[in-house]
Amino acid sequence: MTGTGRRLAETLGAAAIAAASGVPLDVTTFAAAVPYIGEALDARSSTKRLRRAVTEDLTNWAESEGLSEYLEQGIEIAMFAIARHGLQVHVLRRCSFDVERISESIINEVRGHDHGWGCAQGSELDGVHVVARGAVHAVVTTLVRQEHRVEGEILPVLADALKAQAERYERAAERDEEVLRLLRNLAAARTREADAEDLQRYLEQRLQVWDLETGIMPLHGRVRHPSQIERALNVASAEEGDGVLSVGQALARYEHLVVLGGPGAGKSWLAHRIVRDAAHAARDALRNGSRPQDVEIPILTTWETVRSQPANGSIRSRLLAASFASPGNGDLGSVELEERLQRLLGESRRVLVVVDSLDEAEKGDGADLLLRDIEGIADWRTVVTSRPSAWGTKPLTRRRTKGLATLRPLTWDTDTIPFIRTWFAGDPERAEALIGHLEADSGLRDSAGIPLMLGFFCVHAEEAPLDSPLPRTGHELYDTVIESLLVGDWSSATRPGDDQIAEAKRVLADWAWDAVRDAEDRAGLGDWGEAFTPATPGVPSPELLRALDNVAPLRRDGGGRTARTFRHRTVLEHLVATRIACLDAAATVDVLLPHLWYDPDWEVAVPRALALHPERNEVARRLHEETRFSTKTPLIRESDEQLGAMWLEVAADSCPEDWSEPERRRLEGLRVARCLRDTARVLRSGHWPNLDGSIVTALLSSLPTAEPRRLAEHCRAIARWATTGNERDEAVQCLMQRISSGRAAETARVVDALMQLGPSPKERRDASERILSVFAGEALPRDAGALAGVLLRLGLAVEDRRAARERILYGPRDEGTVGLTNLSLCVTGKERKRLLDALHALDLTCDERREAVRSLRAACDRTNDPTKLYRQVDALLSLDPQPEERRGLPDVIRAALPDAEPSTAALLVGALVRLDPEVPVPEDVSARIVDLLSGAKPKRVVGLVGALVTLDASEARRRAAAQTVLERLATSPSRFGGLLIEALLRLEPTAEERRTAASQLLDASNGASPKSVGKLLSALVRIGATPEDREQARGLIVSAIPRTSDVELVDHLVVTFERLEPTDEDRRGAVAALQRLLIDALPGRAANLAATLRRLNPTEDERRRAAATMQKALTQGTVGDLARVAEALLDLEITADERAAIAQQLLLRIEETNGSWGAKRPARVLRQLTTVSQWTAMLHGADAVT
C-alpha cells in the first residue's frame, strides 16, 4: 500500500470511530474535523490502540484483496459514506452486532443517494465501489470486534473532541461573517461615487485655496486675495486676426483654449481665476438643486505634476490624479473623498481642466502628445497656459490658430490704477505716490502692464519712502522684492538683519544654481523642472530657514514626497542669473554660450546674468568674439536674429552708463535697427535715450502701412521718444487717415494706437465723427460691439450716443426695413450679442428698448416662416421683455412647430422654455419632437434630443426617443455614428440600450473604411464596451491602420486604440502596422507617423527600427521637410552618431532657405541635434559635423 493509501486508511479509521459518536456533521465539516479527531484519539493510549487496530485491519484487508489500483479512491468514497450515513452504536445494537446486516444497511442507505453503488459489474466505476463496499465491511467488522471499547472509552473522547471542533467552526463562521460584512462595506465605500455634498465640500476647499496669492506672499499679515485685487485679462485670438477678447468670451468660444504669455504676464493668475469662477458657478448650481452630472466641475494642475503621474492609466485618470496631487491645491482631508471624487469626475461629461505652465515641464515629457490626449477627451473643456517660446518648440503646436490666444498687457486707466488703489486701500497716499512715480516714467509705466511686475512694484512700495524713486531695471526690482519676501511676516523687533538677509540671498542663489546647473538635454540646452531638492551642504539655522521658506517653500505632493519650489519661475531665473554673475568672465562665457540660441528655459537668465555681471563689458567682448561670423549665410542670419533679441533684453535690464562706449554704441545701434520688427523689446529699454531721433523717424515712416496689431506699440514708442510736437501730430494725422479708409475690424486697433499718443478732446471728437461717418452706412455693423467700445473709449459725447444707438439698432432707415431691428436680422447669436453689447455700452434707454421689443413682437405675429420666427423670438428674449410683452408668444411658437424643420423645431422648443421656465410645456410638444426624430437628418438628431431634455420629458418619451436613435444608428451612414451616440448619451441610456448601441457600432465597423472605423469605434468608447467588445474593436483598428494614407486619421485610430485598453500583444500589432506605413512615407507623413508611434510607448528595439526606416526619408523633400523628420527622430531618442549624421544632412540643405525666416525652423532643429561646440563650428564655416 502506498503512503497515500495508508494515510487514507488511517483517516477512514478515524472517521468510522467518529461516526460512532452520533454527532451530526455535514461531509465537508466532517472531513475538516478528521485531523482533530485523530489528534484527540492519539492523546490517550487506549483510544490510540483502537485507532491503530482499525487502521491495521483495513490495511491488511486491502492488501489481501489485491485492490491496490482502486484502493485510494475507494477508501475516500467509503469515508464519506460512513460520515453521511453513520456507524452509530445504537445502529450496531439494532442489528445485533451482525456485521453483514450492518454493512448492508449502510450500503442500501448510500445507494439511495448515489446510484453508482449499483453500477454494472466489470466497469471501472464498479471496481472503485467494490473497494468502497469492502472498506465499509472491514470497518464494521473491526468496530463490532471492539464494540465494548467503543462505548466505554471512545465515545467520551469523541464527544469532547467534536464539541471543541464544533465551537471552533462556530467562532470561525462568526469571524467569516464579520470579515464578509467589512469587505462588503469596504467594497461599497470603494465603488460609491461622490454626491452633491461631496462636490460642494470639494468646491468650498478649492475656492479657499485658489483665492490665495500666487507668486507674491502676503506681507506683514495683510492677506490680499486675488479676487479682491486682480483685473480681468484680455487675450488676442490668432484665429480672429488678433482680435481682442475677454477671457470669458474666449472660454465661451473655444472648447480647447491655449493661452500664451511672457514671463509674469499673468498666466497662473488667469488659470486660478478661470477655475475659481467655474467653482463659484458649480457651487451655486449645486446649492440650487442641480444634479452633479449636470454641473461642470473645475480641476487645476500643472504640466510638471501631470507628467509625474504614471502613464499607464487613462488621460482622464492622470489629470484627476495630478489635480489632487498638485501641492498648490491643498488637502481635502480624506483619501476616501478624493477617491469618490475621482470616480465621479472620471465618468463625468462636464469637467473643466486647467493645466498651467507648459513651459515649466521638463523636456522629453511628450508634452505635444499629452496636449493632444487632453484635448481629445470627449466633452471636457480644457485650458492650457504656456510661454510663447516653449509653445513654439512643441511639434503639435505648429501652425495652430484655433483656440490660440495671447495675453494682453493691463491697460493703465482701467486696470493698473484700480489695481494699485485696491492694493493700498488702507493707505491711499502711498497708492497715489506709486501711481505718480509710474506716470512720470513711461518705461516703468509699460512695465506695470505686466501683472507680476505690477505686483512687484506694489510690494516694493509697501515700505519704501513715498518720495523714493522706483527701481529702474528688472533686476533691481527683483532684488528688493526678494528682500521683502525674506523678511516676510516678522515683526519689526525680530526681523533678520542685513547680514542675515545677505546670507539668505546667497543660499537662495546657490539653491537655484544647484537646481539648474546640470538640468540639460543631450545638446546642452536647458531642461529645468519645477521642484528641486537643495544640494547645498549644511543645515540653515531655524531663523534663516524661516526666511528661505518665504521664497522657496517646502511642498508635499500626493505621494508624500517633499521638495522646494520657488514662488514664481521668474524668481528662480533671477537667482540663477545672480549666481552666474558671481563667476569670472571666462567661466561666465562658458556657462552662457550653450544657451544663447533656442533655449526657452534660459531666455530670462542669460540676459540678466550679462546685465548683472560686474565684468559685463569683458563678458560681452568675449561673447561677441565667439559669435562674430565672417559670412552671412541663412543659418548665420537666423543666429543673428536670436542674438539680437537677447541683446535687446540685456539693454532692457541695464542702463546706458553700465557699459563702455563701444558696447553702449553697439546696443543703441541694435535698438534702432530692430525698432520696427521688435518694438516691444525696444520699448522695454525705454530708459535708454533716442539720441538722434532715428527710432521715431523709422516708426513714423512705417505708420501708413504697418500691420494693425503693431500700431499701438509703434505709437507708444513714438510717444516715449518724440522730441517735438510735430512728430506726435504727424502720427495722429496718419491714424486719422487709417480710420477713414479702414475696416471695422481694424478700427479698434487704430484707436488703441491713437490713445497711446494722448489725443486732445478735439482729436477724440474728430476720430468719433470719422467712425460714425465711415460705418453708418452698413446695414448690420459686423463689429458693432467693438465699435461701441471704441466710441466710448474716445469719450463719445452723450448727445452723439443716441445717433450711434439708432444706427446700430436699425441700420439705415429705408422703406424695406422700417420697423425691423438689426437684432432680428442677425443670423447667429454671436452677432446678436455683439449688437446688444454695443447698445448697452452706449446707454440704451428704456424707451428705445420698448420700441425695439414692440417691433420684434409685431414681426413675430406676422411671420409664417419658423426660422425667421425663431430669430425674432431670440432677439426679443435678448432684450429681457416684461411678462405682458411675452404674452401670447408660446401659442405662436406651438402653432409653428408642426411646419418647422427639425433643427428649427429644436431651437423653438428652447425658446419656448426660455419664455417662462416655470410653466410646464404641453405633452404634445414632446410628442412632436419624438416624431421628428425618425425623419430628421442625423446631424439634426442631437439638437432634437437636446430639446427633449430641455423639456424634461417623461421617462417613457426618453425611452421612445432612445429606441428611435438606435434605429437610426442601425440605418445611417457610419460617419454619423458619433453624432447619434452623442444624442443617445444625452438620453441617459439604459444598460440594454448601451449594449445594443455597442453591438451596432461593431457590426457597422466590420468592412468599413478606416475613416468610418475611427468614427464608429470612437463612439464605442463613449457608449461603453465589454472586454470582448474592446478586444474586437482593437483588432478592427489594427487592420484599418495600414489601409489609410491619412496621417491625421492614423493618429485618431491610435488614440481610440489606446482608450480600448490594449494588451501588450495588441500594442505590438499596432506598432507593426505603423512600421509598415513608415516604409514608403514621404517626409511630412513620416514625421507625423513617428509622433503617433510614440503614443504606443514603443520598446527600444521598435524605436530603433522606426528610426532606421525614417532616415531614408531624409533624402527627399525640402529642407523644411527634412527639419520635420529630424524633429521626429529626436523624439525617438536616436544615438549620438545618428544625431551627427542627420545634422550633417540638414547643414548641407539649409542654404536652400530663403532668408532667415525660412531658416528659423531648420536652424532650431540643427541646434537641438548638436552640441554647442558643433553648433559654433558650423556658424564659423565648418562644412562637417564632427
Task: Provide a concise account of the structure shown.
Helix content is 64%, strand content 3%. The longest helix has 45 residues.
Mean pLDDT, all residues = 80
CATH superfamily of the domain at 196-408: P-loop containing nucleotide triphosphate hydrolases
Strand order of the largest sheet: 2-1-7-3-6-5-4
Strand content: under 5%
**Unreliable stretches, pLDDT < 50, 5 or more residues?**
23-31, 120-125, 148-152, 217-221, 815-819
Helix count equals 60
Task: Count all strands and give the number.
Answer: 9
Instruction: Give the end-to-end Cα distance, rounded to a whole number of Å.
Output: 82 Å
Radius of gyration: 41 Å
CATH class bucket of the domain at 196-408: Alpha Beta
Percent of residues in helices: 55-70%
CATH-defined architecture of the domain at 196-408: 3-Layer(aba) Sandwich
> Which class do the helix and strand fractions yield?
mainly alpha
The CATH topology of the domain at 196-408: Rossmann fold
Query: What overall form do the CA principal axes indicate?
Result: globular
Biggest sheet features: 7 strands, mixed
Please explain how this structure is put together:
Among the domains are: 3-177, no CATH class; 196-408, Rossmann fold (3-Layer(aba) Sandwich), CATH 3.40.50; 690-759, no CATH class; 761-810 and 828-844, no CATH class; 1083-1186. The radius of gyration is 41 Å and the shape is globular. The protein has a seven-stranded mixed beta sheet, with helices on both faces. The relative contact order is 0.04. A hairpin with a 5-residue loop joins strand 8 (554-556) and strand 9. The chain has 60 helices and nine strands. The longest helix has 45 residues, at 147-191. 64% of the residues lie in helices and 3% in strands. With 1186 residues, the chain is mainly alpha-helical.
